[in-house]
Amino acid sequence: MKKILLIVPVFGLILTACSKPTHDASQDIQATPQTQIAQSHDAATPTIDSEHNAQNSLDWAGEYTGLLPCADCSGIKTILTLKPDHRYELSEEYEGKGDGQQFKSQGTFSFDSSGLLITLDKNAEGRKYFVGENFLESRDIETGEKIESPIAEHYKLTKKLQ
Question: Please, are residues 150 and 94 in contact by the beta-carbon 8 Å criterion?
Answer without folding.
Answer: no
